[in-house]
Specification:
Elements: E1 6-10, H1 23-37, E2 42-47, H2 52-62, E3 69-72, E4 77-82, E5 85-88, H3 90-100, H4 105-112, E6 118-120, E7 131-135, H5 141-152, E8 159-165, E9 172-178, H6 183-194, E10 201-205, H7 211-214, E11 219-222, H8 228-241, E12 247-249, H9 254-264
Parallel strand pairs: 1-2, 1-10, 2-3, 10-11, 11-12
Antiparallel strand pairs: 3-4, 4-5, 6-7, 7-9, 8-9
Helix pairs in contact: 1-9
Length: 268
């Protein structure tokens, strides 16, 4: 029997962490924290592009409620809270290794380096299961992505390309992951670990790297500050899959939008 009644999985930056400063935004975070803490039957998970140390710093800085699960590095690592500390899920790490199918991050990085216009992110943003780049706001992102597909060649079927754009400045963010792996993969793993029915899961996000989880058939909250292009694409793709009723497009941004969506789904 599951230890919780519901699972709420949230992206961090741009979702429960505001991209702007101000007392009003932090008040929404405080309200989110209070509502989550008041519901011990709710299992909370953060699913973020941040690495583990940066995710912990974000939680501390913004006073976020502590999650049971912390999925980092765009879903390529999972940590579980045990006795007040977070422990790496070793079984999930083995799943990542199998998902590469014998490919190494170094090989993927070497292929992608042949595409002029990709700027490798800092070394501390690279992991054995994730190669990350930035794309200049002024670049033709579509052309760069097509060039990447060509350069990957025979590795295309074993690499997942996750692309998103920072709404604040148009900077492109690109993550190359094992095929089939992204935030939705981590969310499914966490859901299985909780023993909950999929209908008991709600996922909240704001950017392109949340799209796979949004379209996986779970209940989803698209916070109000999500880019209009993403909202349009999600509406189109959800309609094609017959899951339009599973997505809620909040009016409020950030944590306020998460609360609005949770109210819609009867979660908080």
């Amino acid at each position: 029997m599951a230890a919780w009644d519901f699972l709420l999985a949230c992206d961090m930056d741009g979702t429960v962490i505001p991209l702007e400063e101000g007392a009003g935004w932090e008040a929404d975070v405080s309200a989110f924290r209070e509502r989550v803490v008041a519901r011990p039957e709710l299992c909370l998970a953060y699913v973020t592009g941040r690495d583990f140390p940066l995710a912990l710093r974000g939680m501390e800085k913004h006073g976020l409620p502590r999650p049971v699960y912390l999925a980092c590095d765009v879903g390529t690592s999972v940590y579980i809270e045990q006795a007040g500390a977070y422990v790496l899920d070793g079984g999930y790490a083995r799943d990542m290794q199998e998902a590469w199918g014998g490919v190494s991050a170094g090989e993927v990085r070497e292929r992608a380096a042949r595409v002029a216009g990709f700027q490798l992110q800092r070394e501390d943003r690279q992991t054995p299961f994730k190669v990350s780049y930035e794309l200049s706001p002024s670049a033709d992102h579509g052309a760069l992505l097509r060039a990447l597909e060509h350069r990957l060649g025979d590795l295309r079927d074993r690499v997942r390309v996750v692309y998103s754009v920072q709404a604040s400045d148009g900077l492109g963010l690109l993550d190359l992951l094992p095929a089939g792996v992204a935030k939705d993969f981590a969310v499914r793993h966490i859901l299985r670990d909780t023993g909950l029915d999929p209908d008991r899961l709600v996922y909240a996000g704001d950017s392109g790297n949340d799209a796979a989880a949004m379209l996986a058939g779970f209940k989803g909250i698209v916070v109000g500050n999500a880019p209009e292009a993403l909202k349009r694409d999600l509406r189109r793709d959800a309609a094609r899959r017959g899951i339009s009723d599973r997505l809620y497009f909040a009016q409020a941004p950030y944590a306020g939008g998460v609360l609005e969506g949770c109210h819609h789904f009867g979660l908080l």
